[in-house]
Each structure stands twice: as structure tokens, then as C-alpha cells.
Amino acid sequence: MNPLSPNQEEIQELSDDQKLQLIGGLLPRSESERFKVLASRMTPSVTQRYRVAILGGGAAGFIAAAHLTRRFPGFELFHIYDTRIPTIGVGEGTTPLFPAWIRDITGLDDTEIRRRCRMTKKHGLYFENWGTRRTPFQEDFFFNSYAYHISSPDLIELLRSYVKATVLDRRVNSVISNGREVAIGFEEEAPMTFDFVFDARGFPRELTDEHIPIREIPTNAALIRQAPPAEFNRMTRCVARPHGWVFVIPLVSHSTYGYIYNDKISSREEIAAELDFLSQHSGIPLRKETERQLRFPSFARRQLFDGALFHIGNAASFIEPLEATAIHIALFQIDVASKWLSDALIDARGEARRAPAFINGLNKLMREYTMEAALFVSWHYAAGSSFQSPFWSFAADNFRQCLETPTDAGVADRFRQYMEAARLIPEDILQLASMPPDRYLDRMKMNGRQPFFYAGFSEISFAQIGYGAGYFERQEYLSPSQVNAAV
Ligand SMILES: Cc1cc2nc3c(=O)[nH]c(=O)nc-3n(C[C@H](O)[C@H](O)[C@H](O)COP(=O)(O)OP(=O)(O)OC[C@H]3O[C@@H](n4cnc5c(N)ncnc54)[C@H](O)[C@@H]3O)c2cc1C
Prior knowledge:
alpha+beta, 7-stranded mixed beta sheet
């Protein structure tokens, strides 16, 4: 069975728990609420006192530490990070998976979470200058759900109070796993061994044979500046520009502008000049003194998990921020990891969970999740933008080449299927993204169509991008009754 697009018969053969596991592992944005149900059902009562370490004190490290504290209260947790090494934290967008997760972990309601972390609510993405149509378009979250714009340092401060672990401020020099236990070497202190380790130490220093480079992504750098709080704060603005695109993340205390570009095509000076131009043109002060440049790799680890050592967050995979997938993927990774732990530690099938075939399957699932997200993001560039420039020619050609000669044929095949499924959704019914989920799913089933999800993205997200960017042909206008009948 292909876990990313099981067919109806295959789903019917599964037990309730297997269905939940399948859905939970592949949470579509629309179903983030199910996460809560799933999480409560999956909380195991592990009695043996396993020693578990989380390496890294960035957003991913704290997400893992808070998640494990909540799910596995019996674990002896160690949270190890070097405070001399900075975390990323640029001002991040999230997906609807995140509010569901953080409510579950903290027990706080939406208002209190936003107050404590100075977040704004995010209802989707607002694209300007993208594609052939020359008009802005939106990608609304499915079924009226929402996410947050967050500041990682504020998030970390909140999560800190939900982590119960021995905190060690020290530099890790080596991590050696034999798939049964993991030895951690430090700069100065004596080594320690653990039953399980979550490595969330951020980007690898360089990509090696352990990493699959993701050439689908046409960008590799960001120039970030801060500005006063933005008036338009219900969506992340994604503004195409000649050298790439600019995100505007609106927080309560400030907003962050990030120019995402390719440093092999454009220089930092060109990007800084563009930010100056945007500042003058819009009248919004993009403060030069807050400017910082970040370079990022696009990759997925071949092996994220070996039976004892998990990789999570930027240590496991990364693609550019266009669809805000990094924290989303980190939540997916920790969810898969904790389900594996639940099974392997309390179930009679534990040993089977450690079989190489099973571990390989899990790695494939997690690796492909990032690669699917990458192909979806790459597609956003396919119809070009209002600008004819070396960057946009490169980005559009790059997508076409990647689809023709894919890094992973299965990922590309599913992408095509998904794109064609989205093309069948007439443009005028996109408003039904806001219909109640049960009604939508019932209608899909009535028409013999099983909804499936691509790296957590719904067909509706595909349709919104496909039409918005002008990649799909505009369809005839439908009356409201035809709209209802068509879903
Ligand atoms: C330009 C840009 C924009 C982004 N926008 C978004 C967005 O909109 N949405 C989104 O979801 N994500 C976004 N991200 C990604 C997001 O910022 C990260 O995914 C997230 O912060 C998680 O990072 P991390 O914890 O994996 O790594 P980091 O923040 O790099 O943290 C690594 C941690 O490991 C510790 N460490 C490192 N080496 C050692 C060592 N040897 N010993 C001990 N400790 C060590 C460090 O001290 C640090 O605590 C963006 C990233 C970039 C670059």
C-alpha cells in the first residue's frame, strides 16, 4: 500500500488504530484537529526508564523536548545544547498543524498562546506578482483553519516551561549510534550513552553522502530585515521580485521581511538595493541595522532514523520557506518518531519495529515527505512572475527539468496525479475550501473520489496555486448549485 495515497479498499482493510496511525502520520492541514484525538489515544504508559537525549535548543529541539515530556513522562530526558551557537529564528510562518499541536502540548487556549508568544493568526498565503495572470491570489487554509506567525525565541520561551529534562549547556563533538544505543562525545566533559537520541542541531556543516541534495529548490539565501508591525497581518505576504521573492511575516512586536534569492545568480548588494527600493517605494522602514544574511541548503537526510538516533528539524531536512514547511515537517517527524516509540516500547511487536525493512520504510516515508513539499514549492515558480529576469527563467526551467528527470520518480508521479486531481476542481468552487470538513469529505466520497494529501497539502492548495499562478486554464463560471454538485 502506498501510505501517501491508499485506495478505498486498502483503507477499509485497516483497523481503527491503523487508520488513525495513517492519518496521524500524514496529517493534512485540514485535519489538524484529529491530531489531538490521535495524540490522546497514542499516549503510551511506558514503564521502563529509558534515557533519552535531545540535542539542540532551537525551535526543533524544544518542539521535540516538549513533545517527549508530554507523551513519555516515564523517560529520563536530557536536553543538551550549546548556548554559544545561535539558533535561527527569523520570524516564521506555520501551518494549521502547529496550533493543534501547541494547544495539545501546553493545554493553553488560542488567545493565551498568542498573548504569550506575541504571534498573529495566519489564514493562508497572499501571493503578489506570481504567475501569468498579473493579479494577486490567495492560498487559504483548508476548511477555515488557521496557523500562526511566530517568533522562534518567544516560542522557545513558552515551550521551555513544558520541558522536564536535565539541561546541559555544552558542545557535542560526536554522535555515534549502533541502532541500539547512542554515544555522545563532548568538547570537554566525559561521553554519555543514551537509549534514544533526537539530533536537532540545525543545518549540517556541509552536505555529504548522508544527504540527498534537493535541486528542485531554486533559492539558497535570504536577506532579512525587520520593520514595524504590519497592518495586513492575517496572511503571509509572498511578493515576487526580480531576484526571487520577499516574505512578510507580521508579528505583534514587529514584522520581518525576508528576500529569498539564489546567491549564484544575484549578489547581496543587489538584494540590499532591492530592499532599499521596497522601503522607499512602500514608505515602510525596512531597518538596515537589523539586516542579516542567511544561507541555507536544500536537502533531506537519506536516513533520518536508525532504531536509536532520530534526526529532526533542520538537522534532518530543509527547503526554502515559501510554504512554511520547516516547523510543519519537524512536527511530522516528531509525530512519526513518537508513534514508532509507542509501538516499539510497549507493544509485543517491538522487535519487528526494529527490523531493517521497517526502519527503511519509515525513513522513506519521512524523506519523501520533504521531497514532496519541495516539488510542490518548486511548482510555484513554474508559471514565472511579473519579472523577466535570469532568476525567474532559471526557476521555471528548473522545475520543468526536475519533473522530467526527477530525483525520485515516485514523488514526481504522485505530484502529477495530484496536480491532475486538482485541475478537476473548477476554479469557482475554490470558495468551498471553507465548507465544513465532513460535508466536503462526504461529497468527495459520493462522487467516488478519495481525498489524499501530498506532504500535508490538499488538492485544494494545489488548485489554488494552479489557478492563481495561471498554470491551470481558467474554467467556466459555475452557479452556486453547480458548485455544490461539482465537489
Ligand atoms: C530564511 C529562513 C526563513 C525561514 N522561515 C520559516 C518559516 O516561515 N516557517 C518555518 O516553519 N520555518 C522557517 N524557517 C526554518 C526555521 O527557522 C527552523 O526550521 C526552525 O527554527 C528550526 O530550526 P532548528 O531548531 O532545526 O535549528 P537551529 O535554530 O539552527 O538550532 C540548532 C540548535 O542546535 C544547537 N547546536 C548546534 N550545534 C551544536 C553542538 N555541536 N553542540 C550542542 N549544541 C549545538 C544550537 O545551539 C541551537 O540551539 C526558516 C529558515 C530560514 C533560514
